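Interim report, section 4.2 (structural modelling).
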Amino acid sequence: QVQLVESGGGVVQPGRSLRLSCAASGFNFSTNDMHWVRQAPGKGLEWVAVISFDGNHNYYADSVKGRLTISRDNSKNTIYLQMNSLRGEDTAVYYCAKNLRGYYFDYWGRGTLVTVST
Amino acid sequence: EIVMTQSPATLSVSPGEGATLSCRASQSVKTNVAWYQQKPGQAPRLLIFGSSTRATGIPARFSGSGSGTDFTLTISSLQSEDFAVYYCQQYNTWPPLTFGGGTKVEIK
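Predicted structure of the assembly:
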């Protein structure tokens, strides 16, 4: 069965960096685009970034462009989110999600919480 | 950016009754809308894609409709496990992919 397991969250000070990982299993990872979606405490869902199946293309929400970078390692069935220059408004649960067809999400991980605070 | 607006924010329904949730796009998204269910402490679950196609394993009491700018998720007879927050998402024009603000379906 499909499994997505995020890791790397924690408490970090504003301006610092963090790298999230998402380990995938149960499907042909190297043929699927993958996403990061986040949810601030008590708030709705916000799409963050997508990476193409081969890692050659990625797109970002304006709110994170230039600070967050999505990448993948198909040999490890893992995607990453490098988070630099973190701000308080980046505090959220970060989910990785598997893309289906036209850019919606058929499987989600359980999420990892990132808290940006002094 | 396409803005997705959901209404109402909260819907109070008795078990066994039906519920109708609305989602409006700021411009046409054709039928490129998905719906998700999210329970507290859990990840979202895909219910509907293509405005009206149920995802694998989703019960027939969930149905979606609409095209252009107006979309509806209908739950025909609410079960206890259906009380949750529901989000619509458009994937017609991106980036960015955008979600509605959510509708919470609570027990009346």
